[in-house]
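Changelog-linked ticket: phosphoenolpyruvate example.
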Amino acid sequence: MRKMIIAGNWKMYKDLEETKQLVNGLKAQMKIPSQNVVVVICPPFTSLAVAGELVRGSAIKLGAQNMSEHDEGAYTGEISWKMLKSAGCEYVILGHSERRQYFHESNELINLKAKKAIANGLRPIICVGETLAERESGVMERIITTQVRGVLKDFSQADMAVTTIAYEPVWAIGTGKTATPAQAEEVHKTIRSLASQLFNPSIAESLVIQYGGSVKPDNAAELLGQIDIDGALVGGACLKPDSFSAIIAAAKN
Ligand code: PEP
């Protein structure tokens, strides 16, 4: 049975005091419905060390929102895998659509970052997703296929075993518009069958594919109930302990 991973992407929200409140609130409220469900929080870089201390020994795992493709060096403003690991991170979100759109990250760069993360013991959550224009003009499948092939280029089977894909339709992120469970399931199936072609059926069967895009307490259960949806990447609704806890509670499988 595949794991179900519920990850919260805090984006550029929460200073240190707010970080403590959110993590403590979550620890107090959250109930993980089964051992198969993994909960990850991804605060901004400045909050990682504090959040890492607070979640130590709890069921909550720590992740970052981005990472450099380099080990170290004169890269002003960048953060390395080693820095993330020393703060307690086990996961890193890569290629979020906001990184692709505002910081011009390409599939090639995301692939380099993902390989660097894996080589150094971090589990990447790699985001893919089409824009509304791409969906409406009928090129969605081609876009998703190109992104998945690009970000997973030269991955080994062992690399795939620690990789999560997050399908996040760009038009559903932060907009309150959610893909219907059927729309999301269709794309998740496409991604799984591509993984089967690129690797093999057993890699595809064990690949965790999260859905992201306005996941809220009132739509989580139906989305997470789809056969090929193995968790959620949550933005807005992860910023409050009660709404993130309600999404975690919906993750029964
Ligand atoms: C995200 O940031 O990955 C996301 C899906 O945001 P939201 O849940 O706010 O749409």
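Closing comment: Example verified and attached. The mean pLDDT is 97. The longest helix spans residues 181-198.
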